[in-house]
Amino acid sequence: MCEHFPALLQRDESGVPMASDDDHSHTHSHDHSHGSELSDMQVRVRSLETVLSEKGYVDPAALDAIVEAYETRIGPHNGAQVVARAWSDPAFREALLEDATKAVNAMGNLSPVGSHLIAIENTGATHNMVVCTLCSCYPWEVLGLPPTWYKSAAYRSRAVIEPRKVLSDFGVSLPEETEIRVWDSTAETRFLVVPRRPAGTEGWSEEKLAALVTRNSMVGTGLALNPGDAP
Question: What predicted TM-score, i.e. pTM, was given to this entire model?
């Protein structure tokens, strides 16, 4: 359900795709000719990987394992630690919202992030969701590699046009009165969503809280797990 979105774009009378007022200008562009979802750089990387694999210089299985680790374990685990600290430490939460790069780097046990990370907090009145409308800018230092759906043209277009419907596709239903804000990442600016802390977690350790934080909840396409759903 979350891997494929209908590739439907709203267009103006001249046929040009429309974006929402929340879109920000990017300093980078990509040519996705012939319907390809890959940028020129991604095509070159895959071609190089194929050549090196055929010549026996690299093991495709090892590359897949590295990618899987950064996409599902190492990256999201780092972000979960950041969110759990923000939930349990008011001073850190305030510092994170003021300067996410400085706050995350101060944790020491995480890979240093660039000078572009901004933390945005979900509340009962506002839900935040992150997209990169022109490519796939993503805070990989705290979330790992971006999932396939994040890079898809369907998500990149629909997230700014019909965010509530996209959230519904991910199984997230919010009250009508909840404002949904869509943030557009660029090469200079990345975002980390701090999801709402689930009820019934008072007194929990940071390690236990981190288990409730999912990658999607830090992108805004999901919510933190309820205590009973923790792995």
Answer: 0.71
Which residues lie below 8 Å from residue 178, measured CB to CB, with a gap of 6+?
A: 124, 125, 126, 127
Q: What is the pLDDT of residue 40?
A: 65
Residue spans of the domains in the chain: they are 40-229
pLDDT at 70: 62
- 198-216: pLDDT as tens digits: 999 999 999 999 999 999 9
Q: How far apart are the first and last CA of the chain?
A: 22
In terms of phi and psi (left: phi > 0; alpha: psi -120 to 50; beta: otherwise), the region of 18 is beta
Question: Are the CB atoms for 137 and 188 separated by under 8 Å?
Answer: no
Known catalytic residues are 132, 135-137
- Contact residues for 54 (Cβ-Cβ < 8 A; gap 6+): none
Please, what's the b/e burial string for 78-113 (b: 16 or more CB within 10 A of its CB; e: otherwise)? bbbbbbbbbbbeeebbebbeeebbebbbeeeebeeb
> Would you state the torsion angle of the CA atoms of residues 11, 136, 142, 229, taken in this order, to the nearest 10 degrees?
50
**43: nearest Cα among 29, 31, 55, 59:** 31
Superfamily of domain 40-229: Nitrile hydratase alpha /Thiocyanate hydrolase gamma (3.90.330.10)
